[in-house]
Amino acid sequence: MTTPELSTSSLDEIRSEQLRRLRSGLRQVLASNRFWRQRLHEVRGWDDFERLPLTTKAELIEDQRQHPPFGTNLTYPLERYVRLHQTSGSSGDRPLRWLDDPGSWTWWTRIWADHVYRAAGVGAADRVFLAFSFGPFIGFWSAFSGAQELGAMVISGGSMSTEQRVRAIAELGATVLCSTPTYALRLAEVATQLEVELGSLRTSIHAGEPGASIPSTREAIERSLGVQCFDHTGMTELGPTGHSCSQRDGVHLIESEFIFEVSTDGRTAHLADEGMEGELVATNLGRWGSPLVRYRTGDRVRVSRRPCSCGSPFLKLPGGLQGRVDDMVTVRGVNLFPSQVEEIVRRHPEVGEFVLEHRRVRHLDEVTLVVECPDGAGSVLERLGAELRLALGARIECRQVAPGTLPRSELKSSRLRRILEET
Ligand SMILES: [Zn+2]
Fold first, then answer.
1. Which residues make up the environment of ion ligand 1, defined by Cβ < 5 Å?
2. 44-81: pLDDT as tens digits
3. Total-model pTM
4. 67 Cα: distance to centroid of ligand 1 (angstroms)
């Protein structure tokens, strides 16, 4: 089978439109935004762009610490901003606050409506249930506004127990569920215990963890909820960056609204080579009130420029985000991401939740997989160990804990527990 030729004309069009929007946006940013005036210069062409420094989350946090409460990444006077959101701080950092003006918020909402929901086939006739707490994290609110923009009926599941959410989905006839992948499995578990049918659901959209692009997790969600399941990637400080398409085997990055680059071994490349791997770097092209230029996302990706049968001209991440760059562990020279282990664990329906424990023992990395499974399922541990060794080339010890003992969160689950043990 031969690979169809790349459509260079559409790539050229994407690139010239990116440059046009960047130049026009940066003009106002450089006139009034203190944060960027210190770092950026005018961009006339791609050469200028590639000389701009990369930006890190640590720099943004430090800026807000020195200039509380909002920092200096503000293009407009404060009275023009209408929304404040913040990161969860789950990685141990101080939460990062982010302001949006009406134009930036319209940009977020439009990307949800035109790209994320549209790719999942969601429309005005749908009833979208959002199984989230509705705290200050931006994902809930942008998903809500995007569904409203589409003309769909939007239902907030904030301040509800899992049981109340299951009953609300059934009673209100929700057709679309937005949640983390882990929480979708939790909803299915509770619906089964309560003997509540969730037959109205037909689509689910997931973010926060790579699960919806991991084949075995996607199948588990689709089987237990009777839905077609889609992935979505995004960040509070950056915007909604990607979504899975009709092929549902990875994530397209929305190149009409962002410039994406891949950084590896100190080199950052814009039009990444086929199969290139590294950290995703992104520049947004519509959030000019508090923009980000060449931002290191901390997400590890592998990119593909092969044409996708869905017809999208955009870059694709086969299998979605591989994981956080910080979540990679190296066992006997083999690099491992929790998402690779998840793909194998979820093939076993008798396993509930899982977590990877990482220890350093006498300067050697040891990884133990802790899985929830019922007593008498001991053979699962042996099969898991053998499958992990075969697929990943690393020996990982497996340990059983009782069902229901590992945490289940409606926010993103951390599947890597680092245990410091210096001996
Ligand atoms: Zn596609």
1. 245, 247, 308, 310, 312
2. 999 999 999 999 999 999 999 999 999 999 999 999 99
3. 0.88
4. 42
Any idea what the CATH number is for the domain that residue 91 is in? 3.40.50.12780
Q: Are 206 and 231 in contact (CB under 8 A)?
A: yes
Residues 27 and 60 in one domain: yes
Structural domain ending residue among the three candidates 299, 324, 349: 324
Residue 318's closest CA among 295, 302, 335?
302
Which residue do the tokens 């086929």 mark? Answer: 274
| Ligand 1 centroid to residue 312 C-alpha, Å | 5
Q: Are residues 312 and 345 in the same domain?
A: no
Q: Quote the ligand 1 centre to 306 CA distance (angstroms).
A: 10
Compute how many other C-beta atoms are within 10 angstroms of the C-beta atom of residue 256. Answer: 16
Residue 78 structure tokens: 């404060």
pLDDT band at 106 (very low <50, low <70, confident <90, very high): very high
In this structure, the answer to whether residues 320 and 413 fall within a common structural domain is no
What is the total count of domains within the chain? 2
Give 182-198 pLDDT, tens digit per residue: 999 999 999 999 999 99
Instruction: Give the model's pLDDT for residue 273.
Output: 66
| Ligand 1 geometric centre to CA of 95 (Å) | 34
In the chain, the amino acid numbered 20 is R
Residues 49, 156 within the same domain: yes
Q: Are residues 307 and 187 in the same domain?
A: yes
CA of 248 to the centre of ligand 1 (A): 7
